[in-house]
């Protein structure tokens, strides 16, 4: 069901989405019909001439992924202003509107066609069972969905928890995981779903173990728990509705995000090196495809430019200096287009 039909049939859901009554209703209707501030998007910048509508991109409205995602959108050139108390914002340069949603609902909204694209965690996509296209892994929000148990219980294998009480916010994944270990002797695992403070369940006597996300493990250890097994490794992903009408714009957005992520991982290193050690130097800086080499007025020397991973840049500069390279500089990248 498209968002415009959802608005017409379920106004209470729009209120939850935008949180601003009648004004929000008008905003969201205009958003999907291609109208911004009372004028057709097809008549100005950011128009979608194919169908006069705007692509809807769902992103988390809060939570652990929100800030990083907003920084990524801003760095990728999404120019928008989010009105106060509204959970929808229109981009000014492309026909895209950003809808701020609960992270746990984004996969379902994308699968049902309420929004065209979404950014959320792989764990949420898997838990929802939604049919979506995963366009790219975004490389942040990495954590594990893990089976955890009290440290003093000395549980080392998830089989020891089969048939017992498990509390989680991921009931579908948890049920599928423990089903593999259930036997007639253990019986069915008793899985209880709660939405928050899962790590407190064992201490309160509500559970024998939990299934919850682990990033650094600080919260887990503070609750007296230890990791028993990993159910799923997860990170943020860009997902799309398989039947979206905005195929070309989906690819534009994918390339923008890929370009920003590449720029955030690499820096450009430039240096001068004697031709006698050029082969050694380029083995240190092979570049993403190959380094760029330019002759200098001094024919015995060349200038080399190459992309290197940001996290390895200092070490690479040390190696270059040790073989006699000079004038070594690194340059920060803001964005890129490298055929990602």
Short structural summary:
The chain has about 350 residues and is of the alpha+beta class. It folds into three domains: about 5-140 and about 240-245, Periplasmic binding protein-like II (D-Maltodextrin-Binding Protein, domain 2, 3-Layer(aba) Sandwich), CATH 3.40.190.10; about 145-235, D-Maltodextrin-Binding Protein, domain 2; about 265-330, 2-Layer Sandwich (Alpha-Beta Plaits). The protein contains eleven helices and 17 strands.
Task: Specify the structural class.
Answer: alpha+beta
Enumerate the spans where pLDDT stays under 50 for 5 or more consecutive residues: 1-50
Give the beta-strand count: 17
CATH architecture of the largest domain: 3-Layer(aba) Sandwich
- Assign the CATH superfamily of the largest domain: Periplasmic binding protein-like II
Oligomer: single chain
CATH hierarchy, class of the largest domain = Alpha Beta
Largest sheet: 6 strands, mixed
Radius of gyration: 25 Å
List the topology elements.
Layout: H1 3-9, H2 11-18, H3 21-33, E1 35-36, E2 39-40, E3 55-60, H4 66-75, E4 88-90, E5 96-101, H5 103-112, E6 117-121, H6 122-128, E7 133-137, E8 143-150, E9 165-168, H7 171-179, E10 190-193, E11 209-214, H8 218-222, E12 225-234, E13 236-240, H9 247-265, E14 266-274, H10 278-284, E15 292-295, E16 301-309, H11 313-322, E17 326-332
Parallel strand pairs: 3-5, 3-6, 9-10, 9-11
Antiparallel strand pairs: 1-2, 4-5, 6-13, 7-13, 8-11, 8-12, 14-16, 14-17, 15-16
Helix pairs in contact: 1-2, 2-3
């Amino acid at each position: 069901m498209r968002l415009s039909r959802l608005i017409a049939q379920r106004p209470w859901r729009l209120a939850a989405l935008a949180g601003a009554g009648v004004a929000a209703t008008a905003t969201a209707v205009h958003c999907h019909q291609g109208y911004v501030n009372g004028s057709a998007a097809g008549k100005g910048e950011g128009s979608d001439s194919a169908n006069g509508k705007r692509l809807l991109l769902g992103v988390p409205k809060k939570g652990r992924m929100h800030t990083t995602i907003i920084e990524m959108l801003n760095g990728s050139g999404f120019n928008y202003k989010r009105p106060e108390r509204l959970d929808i914002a229109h981009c000014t340069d492309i026909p895209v509107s950003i809808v701020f949603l609960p992270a746990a609902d984004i996969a379902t909204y994308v699968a049902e066609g309420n929004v065209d694209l979404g950014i959320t965690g792989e764990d949420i996509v898997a838990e929802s069972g939604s049919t979506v296209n995963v366009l790219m892994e975004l490389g942040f929000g990495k954590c594990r969905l893990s089976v955890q148990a009290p440290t003093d219980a000395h549980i080392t294998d998830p089989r020891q928890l089969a048939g017992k009480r498990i509390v989680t916010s991921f009931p579908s994944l948890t049920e599928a995981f423990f089903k593999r270990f259930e036997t007639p002797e253990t019986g069915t695992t008793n899985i209880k779903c709660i939405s928050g403070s899962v790590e407190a369940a064992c201490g309160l006597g509500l559970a024998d173990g939990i299934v919850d996300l682990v990033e650094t493990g600080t919260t887990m250890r503070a609750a007296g728990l230890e990791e028993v097994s990993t159910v799923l490794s997860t990170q943020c992903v860009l997902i799309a509705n398989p039947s979206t009408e905005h195929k070309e714009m989906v690819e534009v957005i994918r390339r923008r995000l890929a370009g920003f992520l590449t720029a955030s991982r690499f820096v450009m290193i430039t240096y001068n090196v004697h031709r006698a050690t050029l082969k050694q130097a380029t083995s240190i800086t092979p570049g993403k495809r190959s380094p760029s080499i330019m002759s200098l007025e001094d024919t015995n020397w060349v200038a080399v430019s190459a992309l290197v991973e940001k996290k390895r840049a200092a070490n690479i500069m040390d190696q270059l200096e040790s073989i006699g390279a000079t004038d070594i500089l690194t340059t920060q990248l803001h964005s890129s287009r490298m055929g990602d």
